[in-house]
Amino acid sequence: MSNETAETKLLINRRNALTALGLSAAGLSITEFMIPRAHASGQVSEAQLPHKETPGKYTVLNPQGIRQSMDRVPLSPRIGNLDGKVVYFVSQDKPVYTEELAKRFSMRVPGAKTVFKKKPGWVSSDDLELRDEVKQKADAMVYGTAMGGGSGMYAVGWIREVEKHGIPSMYVVGEYFVPDVKASADMWGIPALRTVVTPLVGEDRVKQDMTDEKYDEIISGIISALTKPLTEEEKKGGKIFTEKPQRIAMTGTLDEVQDYFNKNGWSDGLPVIPPAEELVNKMLKGTSHSPDEVVTSSMHPEELTVTVEKTAVVGVMAGCRPEYMPVLLALIETWGNPMFTHSTRSDSSMTLMTFLNGPIRNEIKMNPSTNALGPGNQANAAIGRFLSLAT
């Protein structure tokens, strides 16, 4: 690749890249990018080595991104009586099961007109034609069925747009994905989203896997979600403000740092290098950018704001050297693109593969040849780990 451009270049080419490597495309998300030369500085500090600031204790910086304020979406007023109303059942996942729910709802509420629609696109598709139809023709909407972490995230965003149009809606959620949907509702600014929890049901066993009594319970929950008057909490609009994370995360022993980071979801399960301020400052010497400079204001999937210092903190945790900072900054800048959201929220055991091009790959002594995906090269391993920790 030429090094003439100064901007990040994104290329997603799963099939060709993986075929060349002899790998399957299933479960891999690939990022290929060119390093903006503006991220580099003329100075490279000494190698970062894992060591303690003071014997026994580490004071470590917080790697969390910063959530900006957002508009809170109040729920639409509910329908007092469903008779004579048009209720759309929209399926993103599990269309056979969602259609079964629509049929049973129609039998329970014969006075309502029940319309079943399958979302035609992939989980991340807006499918604006269908959404416009719902906005124009529906009095209420049932959306189903959350059967994945990534798909649930997109679904909540879809439902939010319908609720904003004044159409009361609810979401049928698979029992294992309740926390994912709650996190997505908070992320999308609709924390009061109404849901009904369902067991996981095989598409070819929608009648065998669940009793009529359980179906009746779910239908009752759907009716309640569409008709029960809103609480004061559900009516709330305005702004949602999230407290900015403290710069210092904690002080503790090595074991305490590991436990704290694991507990807060800041680790990949392996030990991290404690991001003490001394090490973070060394990492920052690998770039000319100010520590407070914003690298992206939409780090996916949570759309967080990430600064240069936050990038350096995670770089320390991953075992990176200061001279890797241009690469780390480019990765964070790249991850502001929503195309990568699904790979970090999905429960389909995806992993991330990073392809780096440009002269810097030689400058930081990456292994571009035999055993490139194997162990033994610090730059390859640490940069690969960095993105997993950052997302």
Topology:
Blueprint: H1 14-21, E1 28-34, E2 58-61, E3 70-71, E4 86-91, H2 95-108, E5 113-118, H3 128-137, E6 140-146, H4 149-164, E7 169-174, H5 178-187, E8 195-198, H6 212-227, H7 232-235, E9 239-240, E10 248-252, H8 254-263, H9 277-284, E11 294-299, E12 304-307, H10 308-318, H11 325-334, H12 341-345, E13 351-357, H13 360-363, H14 378-390
Parallel strand pairs: 1-13, 4-5, 4-6, 6-7, 7-8
Antiparallel strand pairs: 2-10, 3-9, 11-12
Defining traits:
single chain; five-stranded parallel β-sheet; two-stranded parallel sheet; Rossmann fold; 14 helices; 36% helix; 2 domains; alpha/beta; 13 strands; 391 residues
Question: What share of the residues lie within helices?
Answer: 25-40%
Average residue-wise pLDDT: 84
Please give the number of β-strands: 13
Distance separating the two termini: 27 Å
**Uncertain stretches:** 1-52
Outline type: elongated
Element-level helix/strand string: HEEEEHEHEHEHEHHEEHHEEHHHEHH
Radius of gyration: 24 Å
What kind of oligomer do you see?
single chain
